[in-house]
Write a structure and sequence with these properties.
Blueprint: H1 16-21, E1 39-40, H2 53-67, H3 69-72, H4 79-93, E2 103-106, H5 109-120, E3 126-130, H6 135-143, E4 147-151, E5 153-154, E6 157-158, H7 160-172, E7 178-183, H8 197-210, E8 213-217, H9 233-236, E9 242-247, E10 259-262, H10 265-274, H11 281-292, H12 296-321, E11 327-328, E12 336-340, H13 347-357, E13 359-360, E14 362-363, E15 376-380, H14 386-405
Parallel strand pairs: 1-13, 3-4, 3-7, 7-8, 8-9
Antiparallel strand pairs: 2-10, 5-6, 9-10, 11-12, 12-15, 14-15
Helix pairs in contact: 2-11, 4-11, 5-6, 5-10, 7-8, 12-14, 13-14
This protein binds pyridoxal-5'-phosphate.
Pyridoxal-5'-phosphate binds near residues 217 and 254.
Length: about 400
């Protein structure tokens, strides 16, 4: 719906946070940035053939056969426990020793972040984020009417010393302190960068000193193609300052809408207590059976190989086509590359010409709470084939070169 055909009939009834965002484009409005013949490098979607349909069908059948009405009842059957165990085992692989009291299954990572926000945030509270960051989270924080401050990233992830300076400065002027610091430490969306071990340790020290919660969104942590795992913030934390979330959206399928939260048991209990409506226990049962049958790990192994190939193809295309002055990140995992265009090119202004040439992408400014990212853009290598990617990157290069000549 465009602004002009929006009725204003209910405006005065909407909640304050809704009223404040009425004139802003809603989350997902970027999906309308499409052109029928253009290659879409916008979507951070898994490629369709990656979905383990046969294994899911088999698991679904087994759950119904073995558990029947238990699996369909409120609370679900025993396969929900299998999923809890499966998640805890995967977390243990990354060094996280958690118990079932420290785990909450959710309807995806976004639902997990929402549970944290609902539990901790009041209107006007302060939240720190990476700039740029996942726009779904920016939009979610918008629902809570909080003040969001962004901190830049470099090749080692979030600039933790800038966070430290801001905290010191706020303490000195007795300004409000952040309640949450939201970070995507592995293969960040949108930049693909990974937060270094040293910075993780420092951030944790700051959390303990200034008493804020680190929200560790590890949506891509399972998808490392090269380099060594960096210990999760949660595994470094023995006091409880980290609340961590994961999701099966990238390793099984987004449609299963299943993820999890790991944190201090008091926090988990509060989040569980406050959340209405429950979670999708039937899907959790299917995934529990999927884990028990041993499907999870081999599927992830295949995904790693496939996404590594796609990442390599994207980097090769960028090196082959983009003009001098353009720069991009080289992620060790995940779905995204962050491209910075040559000086003087605005990625938002370039988009219509790029679409005409045959590619769409997400302009960098979408990932900032305030201004920023005008020269940058996010390209996803997760969804289209290597050949399509190459066509798309070549189109981006043509549009960029034309704009440089103007
Ligand atoms: C960093 C990050 N967190 C969370 C999500 C969403 O996860 P889910 O589909 O589990 O809600 C995404 C993906 O799109 C993401 O990039």
């Amino acid at each position: 719906m465009t602004e002009s055909d929006r009725s204003t009939l209910f405006d005065q009834l909407f909640a304050r946070t809704v009223q404040e965002t009425l004139e802003e484009p809603g989350y997902g409005s970027w999906r309308s940035i499409t052109a029928p013949d253009a290659v879409s490098l916008s979507f951070g979607f898994p490629y369709p053939e990656s979905f383990p349909e046969t294994a899911l069908l088999e698991s679904l059948g087994a759950v119904l056969e073995e558990e029947g009405s238990h699996a369909l009842q409120y609370g679900g059957g025993e396969y929900v426990d299998s999923l809890r165990e499966g998640v805890l085992e995967r977390e243990a692989v990354h060094g996280i020793e958690a118990t079932t009291d420290e785990l909450l299954l959710t309807n995806g990572a976004t639902h997990a972040i929402d549970g944290v926000a609902q539990t901790f945030l009041d209107h006007g509270d302060e939240v720190f984020v990476e700039a740029p960051t996942f726009m779904g989270t920016l939009s979610l924080f918008g629902n809570y009417g909080v003040e969001v401050t962004g901190f830049s990233l470099d090749d080692d992830g979030l600039d933790v010393s800038a966070v430290e300076t801001a905290l010191e400065e706020r303490r000195e002027r007795e300004a409000p302190m952040p309640k949450l610091v939201y970070t995507i430490p592995n293969f960040q969306n949108p930049t693909g960068t990974t937060l270094s071990r040293e910075r993780r340790e420092r951030l944790l020290e700051l959390a303990a000193e200034y008493e804020f919660i680190i929200v560790e969104d590890d949506a891509y942590g399972e998808l490392r193609f090269d380099g060594d795992d960096v210990t999760p913030l949660s595994a470094l934390d023995d006091e409880g300052w980290v609340v961590r979330m994961g999701t099966f959206s990238k390793t099984i399928a987004p449609g299963v809408r299943t993820g999890w939260l790991v944190g201090h048991e008091e926090i988990i209990e509060q989040i569980s207590h406050i959340s209405a409506g429950g979670t999708n226990t039937f899907t959790q049962s299917v995934l529990g059976r999927y884990f028990d049958a041993g499907h999870y790990e081999p599927v992830v192994e295949e995904l790693l190989e496939a996404y590594e190939g796609r990442r390599d193809a994207m980097l090769e295309s960028l090196a082959a086509h983009l003009p001098p002055g353009a720069d991009w990140t080289e992620p060790e995992g995940g779905f995204f590359v962050w491209v910075t265009l040559p000086e003087g090119i605005d990625s938002g202004e370039l988009l219509p010409e790029a679409a005409e040439e045959g590619v769409t992408y997400l302009p960098g400014s979408h990932f900032f709470a305030d201004s920023g990212g005008e020269r940058s853009l996010r390209l996803s290598f997760s969804h289209v084939t290597a050949a399509e990617m190459d066509r798309g990157v070549a189109a981006l290069a043509r549009a960029t070169e034309a704009a440089m000549d103007e």
